[in-house]
C-alpha cells in the first residue's frame, strides 16, 4: 500500500532509540523527511546516517530535552529552519520510574507532568496553526496500554498517560474540519530497552528471574509473545498516512490482544 506521505515533513519526539526510532525509520522508508529529536546527539546522528543510507526519506536531528523549559521553542525553531513547516507530529516521551501510588511525591508528579503531558500539548499547539493553514496534518501520540488497563507498579504512568487520552480526543473534534487527524497509539509489551528495564524491576520486586517474568507475561498475551518495534512502527506509519484520513479521535492498541477491556 502506498501511504501517500512521500515528501511529507515529520517530527518524531524521543527518537534516539526504541519506539520513537522505529517510527522515524518507518516514516522515512515511506519517503517522508524526518526530524529526530532526543537527548543523545551521538545516537541521533548515527540514526540519521543509517536512515539516509537507505536513500528514501531524508533524516536530520536536533538535541532537545522534554524536561527543559526551552524545549518547545527549540523544537519549533528547528522545524521552521529545517523544514519550513510540518505535516506529521509524533508525540512520544520516555516513561516515568516504576513505583506505587505511595511513591508518587508532589515533586515527581510535577516533573513528569511537565515532560510527559504539558510539553506535548504546548508543542502541538505551537505546530497546529501551520497544519490547519495547509489543510493537512497528522498528530499521533504514543501513550501506554495503562491508559485502558492500569499496569502494576507503574502508578505515575497510569496517572499521567490518561490525561493525553482526554486531550487527544478533545483536540480531534476541534481540528478534524481542517484536515488534521489526531490519534492515540497504545503499545503493549514491545521489545525495547524500556521493557527490559521494567521487566528487570519486576524481577527485583518479586524475587523471580527475568526469564520467569517474561514467560509469565507472554503467557498472558493471546499472541503468545512480545511485540517487535517494527510491528508497532508500521501501525504508527499507517495512522500518519493519507489512507488513514478518516481515522481520528481514536485510541488504537498494539498489544497482541493483551488488554482485557473491550
UniProtKB/TrEMBL annotation:
Coiled-coil residue windows: none
Domain of life the protein comes from: Bacteria
Signal peptide: none
Gene Ontology molecular function, alphabetical: 3-hydroxybutyrate dehydrogenase activity
Pfam name, any one: adh_short_C2
Keyword match Cell membrane: no
Keywords: Oxidoreductase
Enzyme nomenclature, EC number: 1.1.1.30
InterPro entries xrefs: NAD(P)-bd_dom_sf (IPR036291), SDR (IPR050259), SDR_fam (IPR002347)
Family per similarity comment: Belongs to the short-chain dehydrogenases/reductases (SDR) family.
Name of the molecule in the record: Short-chain dehydrogenase/oxidoreductase
Amino acid at each position: 500500500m502506498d501511504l501517500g506521505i512521500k515528501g511529507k515533513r515529520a517530527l518524531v519526539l524521543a527518537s534516539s532509540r526504541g519506539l520513537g526510532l522505529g517510527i522515524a525509520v518507518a516514516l522515512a522508508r515511506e519517503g517522508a523527511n524526518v526530524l529526530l529529536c532526543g537527548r543523545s546527539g551521538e545516537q541521533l546522528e548515527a540514526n540519521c546516517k543509517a536512515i539516509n543510507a537507505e536513500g528514501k526519506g531524508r533524516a536530520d536531528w536536533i538535541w532537545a530535552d522534554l524536561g527543559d523549559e526551552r524545549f518547545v521553542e527549540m523544537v519549533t525553531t528547528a522545524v521552521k529552519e529545517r523544514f519550513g513547516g510540518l505535516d506529521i507530529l509524533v508525540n512520544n516521551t520516555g516513561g516515568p520510574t516504576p513505583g506505587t501510588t505511595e511513591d508518587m511525591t508532589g515533586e515527581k508528579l510535577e516533573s513528569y507532568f511537565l515532560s510527559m503531558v504539558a510539553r506535548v500539548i504546548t508543542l502541538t499547539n505551537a505546530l497546529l496553526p501551520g497544519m490547519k493553514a495547509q489543510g493537512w496534518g497528522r498528530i499521533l501520540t504514543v501513550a501506554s496500554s495503562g491508559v485502558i488497563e492500569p499496569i502494576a507498579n507503574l502508578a505515575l504512568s497510569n496517572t499521567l498517560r490518561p490525561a493525553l487520552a482526554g486531550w487527544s480526543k478533545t483536540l480531534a473534534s476541534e481540528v478534524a474540519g481542517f484536515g488534521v487527524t489526531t490519534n492515540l497509539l497504545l503499545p503493549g509489551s514491545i521489545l525495547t530497552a524500556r521493557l527490559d528495564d521494567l521487566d528487570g524491576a519486576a524481577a527485583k520486586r518479586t524475587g523471580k528471574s527475568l526469564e520467569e517474568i517474561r514467560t509469565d507475561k507472554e503467557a498472558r498475551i493471546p499472541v503468545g509473545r512480545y511485540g517487535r518495534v517494527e510491528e508497532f512502527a508500521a501501525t504508527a506509519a499507517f495512522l500518519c498516512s493519507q489512507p488513514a484520513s478518516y481515522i481520528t479521535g481514536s485510541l488504537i492498541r498494539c498489544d497482541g490482544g493483551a488488554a482485557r477491556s473491550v
